[in-house]
Amino acid sequence: MAGGFGGKSSSGGRTGIRVVVAGDKGTGKSSLISALASDTFPDNVPRVLPPTTLPADFYSDLIPITIIDTPSSIDNRIKLIEEFRKADAVVLTYACDQPGTLDRLTSYWLPELRRLEIKAPVIVVGCKLDLRDERHPVSLEQIMAPIMQEYREIETCIECSALTLIQVLFRFLSSVS
User: Which residue, of 27, 52, 84, 171, has the greatest Cβ tally within 10 A?
Assistant: First the structure.
C-alpha cells in the first residue's frame, strides 16, 4: 500500500497523510480520534475536534498523519464533501452497540462516497466495542465480507473501543502511510 497515499514533496516523497473520519452522529468519531492522539479516553470531547496531527514518529515511516473529524449534521455537507475530496484515506465509523449505524454504511455513506467519486481507500471502524451486547456474539468477518465484496474501496475494517483503548492505536493506519 505504501506509495499510494499522501501529499508529495518536490523530491517525490510524501509530506503527510490526510485521513478524514466520517459517520453517523454518536458513533464515536471524536472520542476515537482523541483516544488515538492521547492514548487515553477523553473526559470531555467536543462535538467536532479540530484537525489532529499525529507526530511524524508515530509510525515507522516518519510521515505525519493529520486526522480530520467531521460533523454529522446535514448543515455541514459542503464542508464534508470538501474534506472527502482532499482525503488520502477515509475512515467510516459505526457504533458496535447501534446496528442501525452499520446499516447506514451501505445505505448512505459508501454509496455517497461513490456518488462523489471519492477515490481514497476506505477503512471501516466499529467503535464502542465495549458496549456491544455480549449475549449476541457477532462475527466481524461474517458481517463485513459481503459489504467488502460490494465495496472494493474498503481497504480493511476493525472494531475498537476508545474507552478501553482496544485496537485504538489504529494499526491499520500504518497501511495508509
Answer: 27
Q: Which tens digits make up the pLDDT trace of 44-88?
A: 888 899 999 987 777 767 788 999 999 887 778 888 999 999 999
Looking at residue 99, its amino acid is P
The span from the first CA to the last CA of the chain, in angstroms, equals: 8
Sign of the dihedral through C-alpha 49, 52, 58, 61: positive
Which three cell numbers mark 56?
511524524
Contacts of 33 (CB under 8 A, 6+ apart): 21, 49, 52, 67, 69
Give residue 169's identity as a one-letter amino acid code: L
Question: Beta 65-69 vs 14-23: how paired, if at all?
Answer: parallel
Short-list 115, 85, 108, 106, CA closest to 154: 106
3-state helix, strand, coil in the chain (%, to 5): 35, 25, 40
Pairwise CA distance, residues 113 & 160, whole Å:
23
C-alpha 10/C-alpha 4 separation (Å) is 16
In single-letter form, the type of residue at position 106 comes to: T
Longest dimension (CA), the chain: 54
